[in-house]
Queue: 3 jobs
Job 1
Amino acid sequence: MIKEKKRVALISVFAAIVLTGSKLIIGLLTGSLGILSEALHSGLDLVAAVITYISVSISDKPADRNHNYGHGKIENLSALVETILLLITCAWIIYEAVSRLVLGKTHIEVNIWSYIVVISSIIIDINRSRMLSKAAKKHNSQALEADALHFSTDIWSSAVVLFGLICANFGFYFADSVAALGVAIIVLFVSYQLGKRSIDVLLDTAPQNTINIVEQILATFSEVKKYHSLKVRTGGADTFIKFNIHLDPDLSLRQVHELCDKIENTLKALISRSEIYIHAEPQDLSHTLTEENETL
C-alpha cells in the first residue's frame, strides 16, 4: 500500500517538473502573464507534490511510543503548507495582473508553442488528477486527495489561460491579464477548501459524516439501551472513534464482549482504517424506570 502511494506521488512530482519547466520557458519567450502565472502555479505545485511525496512516505508508519496515534497528521500538515503556497501564488498573480492592466503593459507574443504548452498541461493534469483521486480513495489518503483537488483546478486555470491566449491572438491583449486574475480566483477558492479541511483535522474537529454513521449503526443494535460520550477525530487516513454504551446488566461478560465485537466490525466495514474504543456499562434499572414513567 505504501509503495503504491509513493509511486503515485512520485509520478506527480515528475509531471510537475515537466510542466513547470515548459511553462516557464514559453512564458518568458512570449511575455504572457497568463502562462507565467501558470508557471509559478506549477512551480508551487512541484513543491506541494514533493511535500506530498514526503508526507505519504511518513504517514503510514505505525504508532510508536512518541506518536501513540500514528503519524497520519503529517498528511494534513502538508495540505496546510500547500494552502499557504497557493495563497502566495494568488498574491503574486493578482499584483502582476492589476499592474499590467493599470499601466497598460499587456502586449504579448503568441505563437504555436503557447498553445502546445497550455493544451499539454491540461491533458497531463487530467490524467494526473484522475490517478491521484483513484489512489486517494483506495487508500483514504488526505494528502493525495488534496493533490488531486489541487491539480483538478489546474485544468480549469489552464483553460482560462488558453482563453486569454486566443483573445490575445486577435489583438485583445488585456485578456491575458484578465485570464491571470481568473486563475487567481480559482486558486483562492481551492486554497479556502484545502485550508479549512486541513485546519479542521489538525484541530480535531469532529467529522459530522462519520458521527452520523456511528449513530445510525448504534441505532440498529437493540441491545444498546443508550449511548453517550461519542467522540471522533481523524489523523491522515486514520479515524479514531470512542463512545460509551449502556447494556442490560444481566448480560454475561462474554455476551458483552461479542456484542462490542459486532459493533466494531460493522463500523470498520463502513469506515476504513478506523480504530474504535467502546466502553460498555450496565444500564441502571431504576434510571430506566424513571425515564419510562416520565414518558408516560
Job 2
Amino acid sequence: MLKSLFKKLVPAKFRKTGVTIPVVKLSGAIMSGGSQFRPALNIASCATILERAFDDKNAPAVAIVVNSPGGSPVQSRLIYQRIRDLAEEKKKKVHVFVEDAAASGGYMIACAGDDITVDPSSIVGSIGVVSSSFGFVDAIKKVGVKRRVYTAGQNKSVLDPFMPEKKEDIARLKELQLEIHDVFINLVKESRGDRLADNKDLFTGMFWTGIKGKELGLVDAIGDVRSTLKQRYGEKTKLELIEAKKGLFGRRSASGVSLLSQSAASDIAAHATEGLVSVAEERALWSRLGL
C-alpha cells in the first residue's frame, strides 16, 4: 500500500517503468588511424563509448549493433577483447545485432556477443585473411622510371609494388596469413562452441546471408534490436543509444577533441587526402560482399 502510494508521489520522469538497455553502434571499415573528416572503426574510436555503455549499473545487458565489412585483424580483435573484458568486469550480457554485414573482422567483433541476431538479408562470415596490393613494374618501365632501393637487411623491401614479385616473399606472406587465420578460427570456435555446424566451408572465407548463417551456427536468431530486446526484457524496455561526444560544427569525436586543434590549412588538406584513401579502402571492402 505504502509502496504504491510512494510511486504515485514520485514525478513520472523519475519513476522506474522498465529496463533501459544501452546500445552501441559499431559501423564502418575497421582500420587504425582515422580523422575528424573520415572516422574509422578501431579501439581508439570506440573504447570510450563502450566504457560508458557498460558503466550503466542498472542495465542488465549492453546491445552492440555491428555493421562492418571487416578490415584490420588487430583492431578487430582489440575491440572484441575490450567488449568481453567489460562484460566480465561489469557482469553484463552482451547482445549483438547485425545490420548489413558482420564479415571478416566485423564478424570477429560480433563474436563478442553472448548471442548474435541478424536480419535475414545480413551478410555474415568471411572467416579468412586477405592481403591486396598493386604491381607497377611495367608502368614505371613505360615512363622511364628506375626504382632505387637501399636497405640494411635482405628482407626490408619484400613485396615492393615497384619490383618484380619473388616466390620466397609470397611464401612468407602466406605463412603470416595462415597464422592470423588460425587466430581468427580459434576465436570463433571459442566463442560459438558447439553451436557451429560441421561444414567444410565454414573457415574458407566464404560468407552467407543471415538465414544460412543461422543454419551454420554463425548466428543465433533472426530479428531486430528493438523487438528482440523487448521480448527478452519486457515490453517496457527502453533503448538508449550511446554516442560519441560532439566536437566543433557537430562532428562526433570519441575523444572529444575539438577541430580547433587541427585548424592549420596543411593539416586540413592532409586529413582530407587521408579521408579519400580511407573511402577507397572502405568501398573496396564493401564491394567484396556485393554491397
Job 3
Amino acid sequence: MTNPFFINKGPFEINKLLILLGITNKQKFKNKKIYDVKDLLTSTNNDITFFHSKKYENQAINTKASFCITTEKLKNYLPKNCNKILVDNVLLTTAQITKIFYPESVNDNFDITAKEISKTSFKKKVKYGKNVLIGKNVKIGKNCTIGHNTIIEKNVIVGNNCSIGSNVIIKNTILKNNINVLDGCIIGKKGFGFFPNKNKNYRYPQIGSVIINDNSEIGCGSTIDRGSVSNTVIGKNTFLDNQIHVAHNVKIGDNCIIAGQVGFAGSSTIGNNVMIGGQAGISGHLKIGNNIQIGGGSGVIRSIDDNSKVMGYPAKDLKKFVKEIN
C-alpha cells in the first residue's frame, strides 16, 4: 500500500468494479479479484493501473498490472497480458476507482481524535510548547521538540532528534531522523487534484503520503502535499527554504538546496545534488537530472539532463541565456 494510513476497502471483483463505474456494458472480463490501484511501475498482478499519456509509454510497456485504464489510442503500448479497460477520460475513471478503494482519502477534515499533548503518553517524552495537539496512532522518537500551536494529526510517524516548529500541521507523513520542520508548515494535506465534470469539479482521492528522509530541513511557511497514487518524497540532507510548495507525487533527491518561493508542480522528479534559485517554477511530470543548477526566477517546462546549468523562461542553457541578454 502506498499510504499505510488509509484503509483499503478491497479486494473487488473486476466486473463488479466496472458495474460501480457504469462501464460494464462495454466490456466483460473473466472475473478476477483486484486488491489495489497503483501506478504503472509499482502495480502487480493483483492490481489495476492507469495509462493516460504517451510520455509514460516506457513504464506502460513494462507494467505488471492485470488491468489498465487507458484509451483506444494508447492501448497498444501495454503488454498483451494486461487487460485494457477503454474509457474516454482515464484520470476521471481512475479517480472514481481510487475513491471506491479508499473512500476516506477524498476529504481532509480536521482530526477529531487530536487531544492536548499533556493528556497523552508523550507528555514526558517530548519537549513541547503551549496548545500542542496529538492525534491517534502517532509515533514520536527520542529527543524531539514541538513548538506552540502545532497539530500532529493521527497517523504520523516522527523519528529521532526531530524539531517541529510552531503553528505547524502534519498529517499522513513519515519524518525520518534529524528533521527540522520550521514554523508555519503544512505537510501531508491533499494535493490540488480535481477534474472539471459538467457543473461540478470531481476531486481526485489522494492516497499517498509524504516521506521526508534523514537530515533534511523544511523552511517556514512551506507546504508539501501528500501523493495522489504514489508518495511525495524529500531526499536525505535536502534543505528547503521558506515558502516553498511541493505538489503531490513530487520526488526530490538527496543533497538538494531549494531557495525560497520555488514551486514544484505535480509528479515531477528531481535528482540528487540539485540547486534551485528563488522563485523558480518546475512544471509537472518532468524529470530533472542529477547535479543540476537552475537560476532564480526560471520557468522549467522541459526535462533537464544531468550536469546542466539553466536559467530563464523557458529555462535554457545558462551560457545561451547570458549571451542572449547581453
